[in-house]
């Protein structure tokens, strides 16, 4: 259940219940998703996207409660939360 950096430009991580996916090249490092997360799941990644921005990374995925505030507040539609398949 580690972080996956796909060749498609996605950062994906999941816990027992939820999967968080970041579309790396859509992110403009505004930080809204990081600030609205009530359980502090997201941090800035050390990876740069093709525009030179650092997208969020679900570093503390075990804390994700699936509220989707990060997804709802992202102005660039760069982050998605799904129920993980069992």
Automatic annotation (TrEMBL):
Record's keyword terms, sorted: 4Fe-4S, Iron, Iron-sulfur, Metal-binding
Entry annotated with the keyword Secreted: no
Origin superkingdom: Archaea
MF-aspect GO terms: 4 iron, 4 sulfur cluster binding; metal ion binding; oxidoreductase activity
Pfam families xrefs: Fer4_9
Residue ranges of every copy of the 4Fe-4S ferredoxin-type domain listed in the record: 18-47, 54-84
Protein name per UniProt: 2-oxoglutarate ferredoxin oxidoreductase, delta subunit
């Amino acid at each position: 259940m580690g972080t996956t950096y796909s060749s498609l430009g996605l950062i994906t991580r999941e816990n027992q219940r939820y999967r968080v996916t970041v579309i790396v090249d859509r992110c403009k490092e505004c930080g809204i998703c990081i600030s609205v997360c009530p359980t502090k799941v997201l941090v800035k990644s050390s990876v740069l996207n093709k525009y030179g921005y650092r997208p969020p990374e679900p570093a503390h995925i075990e804390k994700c409660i699936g509220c989707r505030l990060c997804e709802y507040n992202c102005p660039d539609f760069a982050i998605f939360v799904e129920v993980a398949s069992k």
